[in-house]
Specification:
alpha/beta; Rossmann fold; Dna Ligase, domain 1; D-amino Acid Aminotransferase, Chain A, domain 1; 7-stranded mixed beta sheet; 12 helices; 16 strands; 29% helix
């Protein structure tokens, strides 16, 4: 068996506050680090989640509750650190966790190895209103975005932007689960915009109205990377969304590693200007009129499909972070353009086809079959409940079904795809 390049003496702690049981990105991180011999501790609610069936999970710890403040998050993570009894690499897997950890660096640093991220950068990029300002300063295309200060201004903004309009909450990680509010929605009338604005108090966030960029073949792109201690982007690349779930509006059901010099250049320009350090996931949509690639989201954490960008040496963004923070060389292999990543429950037919340049399934794995089996049982039960309730269920198309939101997902399943998530 080849010797792992990772320092197996240093455990990893994965933090997930969002309660989405079908978050395959967390499983990808568990498997990637576990296969390299690293002890993986998972701070997440795994009740009813296929992730708990992975043989690579060393131990599961209770997470902070949704909406937990910084003090609660710090207390949970420090309790976990006390049980592990050695410094660990800490990797947040959702926006709420990433932002909490960013603000707690001083408290957590003795117990955890963390990237030296400039203060407030994670919150700036995750905040949709701040992101528009950052893009303008860096000359990175971004859809025209307005922030109304009244219901009347919301209605007039719709007239200015033209229908349809994308409505976003600037800080989606603050949305209360019970509110029924989605992080992103399409607004089709001034009245809808007014009504949504009047719910700003519930959202605990500013309402943004944004230019709608129509979807189309080859228009949705994403870029994943790890910015090392010197700011160099490593272990990732640009990818193309071949299929989304729901169609044209959601997460990547089928993605392909595809080189795109323009997307790469925009990612490098923005991260260099920010002095960004750590894992990142950017979403772009190409404008069908101008050909410009507009940045829609900057997520300061691993994207759910980060395993797509696994090179011939097995390097991906979570391994890159572990290597960098333990002062080991990031000896990258050769990139694998054409490699495909498929999320089976959203794209069942695509999961039956083998990619000529390599393919990875989100749930199924020969060396870790438990999560795949658990996902199939849980997903069938989930779809059955939806059908009994008279709601649309996931279809058999390659990630093109409508109507079944990823359970509990705010930060990954429905964040900005209606404007064109990459």
């Amino acid at each position: 068996m080849p010797v792992s390049p990772l320092d197996a003496r240093v455990p990893a702690v994965l933090l997930r506050i969002d309660r989405n049981p079908f978050h395959h990105g967390t499983l990808g991180a568990v498997r990637s680090l576990g296969r390299a011999g690293v002890a993986v501790h998972l701070v997440a609610d795994t009740a009813g989640s296929p992730v708990r069936a992975s043989r690579f999970v060393r131990q599961v710890h209770h997470p902070p509750p949704p909406g937990a403040g910084p003090e609660e998050v710090a207390a949970v993570l420090l309790r976990v650190a006390a049980r592990i009894e050695r410094p660990a690499v800490l990797i947040p897997m959702d926006d709420a966790g990433a932002l909490a950890v960013s603000g707690l660096r001083a408290e957590l640093a003795p117990a955890y190895l963390l990237p030296r991220q400039p203060a407030a950068v994670s919150e700036q990029v995750a905040d949709k209103a701040e992101l528009a300002t950052l893009c303008a300063a860096a000359d990175v295309p971004h859809p025209v975005t307005l922030a109304p200060d009244s219901a009347a201004q919301a209605a007039s903004a719709v007239d200015r932007l033209g229908l349809p309009v994308v409505a976003k909450w600037s800080r989606p990680w603050l949305l209360p689960t019970a509110s029924g509010l989605r992080s992103t929605a399409v607004v089709r009338s001034p009245r809808e915009a007014r009504e949504l604005y009047l719910r700003s108090g519930e959202a605990d966030s500013r309402l943004l109205l944004q230019e709608f960029l129509p979807p189309g073949p080859g228009r949705d792109w994403f870029f994943h990377a790890y910015a090392d201690r010197h700011g160099t982007l490593r272990a990732g690349g640009p990818g193309r969304k071949l299929s989304a779930w729901p169609r044209g509006a959601g997460l990547t059901a089928v993605g392909e590693w595809a080189e795109n010099a323009r997307v790469r250049s925009l990612a490098e320009r923005l991260t260099e200007r920010l002095g960004y350090r750590g894992i990142l996931d950017l979403d772009f949509r190409r404008c069908g009129t101008t050909g410009d690639y507009h940045l829609l989201d900057f997520n300061p954490r691993p994207g759910a499909q980060f395993r797509l960008f696994t090179d011939t040496a097995g390097l991906d963004v979570v391994r890159a972070q572990h290597l960098d923070l333990t002062h080991r060389p990031l000896s990258a292999g050769v990139a694998r353009p054409g490699r495909v990543f498929v999320v089976e429950n959203y794209a069942p037919l695509a999961a039956l086809r083998r990619g000529p340049h390599g393919r990875e399934l989100a749930w199924g794995a020969a060396d870790d079959p438990g999560p795949g089996r658990a996902m199939r049982r849980l997903w069938c039960a989930h779809v059955g409940r939806r059908l009994r309730e008279g709601l649309p269920a996931a279809g058999a198309g390659a990630g093109r079904a409508r109507g079944v939101p990823a359970p509990g997902s705010v930060s990954d399943g429905s964040r900005t795809g209606l404007a064109g998530r990459g």
